[in-house]
Amino acid sequence: MRRKTPLLSLAASLCLLVACSAPSPPDPEQPPKPKAAASTVAAANAYKNAARDAVDATRTQAAEQARAANEAAR
Fold first, then answer.
1. 26, 32 in Cβ contact below 8 A?
2. With a threshold of 0.70, does the pTM exceed it?
3. Which spans in the chain are helix H?
4. Which residues lie within the region annotated Disordered (predicted)?
5. pLDDT tens, per residue, the chain with 74 residues
6. Is residue 14 part of a domain?
7. Is residue 53 part of a domain?
């Protein structure tokens, strides 16, 4: 009776090697496709703009309070 364990082991090793190998590099002729939908980008831009506006308003308010505190200290 002959064992076929080495052949099975070789096949399993080959499958493991193929599964763990690195993917092929991207084709330099084709640019990558955008991953985010336009609506997602628009929502993110609106959020960033609102955050910038809030920062500007906070800075303006802080400057006014500092100016008022300086005038009150005189």
1. yes
2. no
3. 5-20, 38-73
4. 22-41, 55-74
5. 555 566 667 777 777 777 777 777 878 888 877 777 888 889 999 999 999 999 999 999 999 999 999 999 98
6. no
7. yes
d(CA 63, CA 59): 6
What is the token pair recorded at 19?
């599964």
Q: Sign of the CA dihedral 31, 35, 39, 41? A: negative
- Are the C-beta atoms of 67 and 61 separated by less than 8 Å? no
With CA atoms as reference, report the closest residue to 59 among 47, 48, 71, 67.
Answer: 67
Say if 41 falls within a structural domain: yes
What are the residues whose beta carbons fall under 8 Å from the beta carbon of 32, sequence distance 6 or more?
26
Residue with the two structure tokens 């500092």: 66
Domain count, the chain: 1
